[in-house]
Amino acid sequence: QVQLVESGGGSVQAGGSLRLSCAASASASGTILGIYIMGWYRQAPGKQRELVAVMTSGGGTKYADSVKGRFTISRDNAKNTVYLQMNSLQPEDSAVYYCNTGGLGSPWYTGGMNYWGQGTQVTVSS
Q1: What CA–CA distance (Å, rounded) separates 91 from 70?
Q2: What is the dihedral of CA 45, 46, 51, 52, to 10 degrees?
């Protein structure tokens, strides 16, 4: 079991920036070895959850077309932590953002277990 704890959401005006962080840890008495894929997904009201950005432990990345050039994903593999720097935020970026391990729907998804954080709200006003 993997526990994911997100931080960094909030409210910002259009054109502003936010940085999300997510730290993975083992639940109970388990341990975590290297996590292959970590990333971010988002879900807006009335819409399906969508991939925003994922990153492999080797540095491979995939971004949603809508965020390319504005968002940057990064990782600290030693700390099992993933970050999402979001710049030039727009109202359509408003959603609950979820941290993920497993990479569901990404090119590297292997059909294994996906774990999700509790979600953090990002609200962008015009």
Answers
A1: 14
A2: -40
In angstroms, the Cα distances linking 51 to 28, 32, 60, 101, 121 are: 29, 23, 15, 12, 16
CA–CA separation, 38 and 103 (whole Å): 7
**Cβ-Cβ contacts under 8 Å for 10 (sequence gap 6 or more):** 18, 121, 122, 123
> How far is residue 33's CA from residue 90's CA, in Å, rounded to a whole number?
36
Residues 51-80: pLDDT tens digits?
A: 999 999 999 999 999 999 999 999 998 899
Of 22, 12, 23, 21, residue with least CA distance to 87: 12
- pLDDT tens track for 98-107: 999 999 999 9
* Spatial distance between the Cα atoms of 4 and 27, rounded to a whole number of angstroms: 10
Place of tokens 């504005």: 70
What is the spatial distance between Cα 42 and Cα 27, in angstroms, rounded to a whole number? 24
**DSSP string of 41-85, one letter each residue:** EEE-TTS--EEEEEEETTS-EEE-GGGTTTEEEEEEGGGTEEEEE
